[in-house]
Amino acid sequence: MKKVVYPGSFDPITNGHLDIIERASKIFDEVIVVVLVNVDKNGLFHIEERVRLIEKVIKPYKNVKVESFDGLLINFMKERDTKVIIKGLRAFSDFEYEFQMALMNNKLDSSIETIFMMTNAQYSYLSSSSVKQVAKFGGCIKGLVPDDIIPDIMRKANK
Ligand code: ADP
């Protein structure tokens, strides 16, 4: 069985992330979305809240599940017996960081492969931080994130 992990901050999940999840779910037998605690990023949503939002929107995909992890991704992967990471690539600016991460993970464990999936053109400008900014200033986030979680995001951003 081919399993893949899709790691990220998902603060919050956007339609760009969901597009990668949906496409990955057609290629792999199982997709594990993993919300990683990022020491460099101050989040809006708590890790458990991010997981709950993801749970809401992955319901239609029977081979997708979500977990959180505080630690090195490769340790999570060892625990789950997975060898493949999938990442989304938007602009050239993503490339340098993702390239470094992929090489670092491979250096830490040479059996790990990272696969990159190009963003869907319609989501190439979309990031969690831009969604948070728009929501904070009362802008419309319809089309940027799944409809089901719009109220949760608006509520949190305007607290
Ligand atoms: P963000 O940069 O939005 O905060 P994350 O840190 O949660 O996102 O990123 C998790 C993964 O999802 C990364 O591989 C990132 O490149 C990818 N990703 C984020 N937004 C998009 C998008 N709009 N289209 C494709 N991939 C994306």
UniProtKB/TrEMBL annotation:
In which residues is ATP bound?
A: S9, F10, H17, G88, L89, R90, E98, Y123, S124, Y125, L126, S127, S128, S129
Q: Where does substrate bind?
A: S9, K41, L73, K87
A Gene Ontology molecular function term for this protein is:
pantetheine-phosphate adenylyltransferase activity
Q: Name one Pfam family in it.
A: CTP_transf_like
What's in the keyword line of the UniProt record? ATP-binding, Coenzyme A biosynthesis, Cytoplasm, Magnesium, Nucleotide-binding, Nucleotidyltransferase, Transferase
Enumerate the InterPro entries for this protein.
Cyt_trans-like, PPAT
Protein name in UniProt: Phosphopantetheine adenylyltransferase
Q: Which organism is it from?
A: Clostridium simiarum
- Lineage, highest ranks first: Bacteria, Bacillati, Bacillota, Clostridia, Eubacteriales
Q: Which gene encodes it?
A: coaD
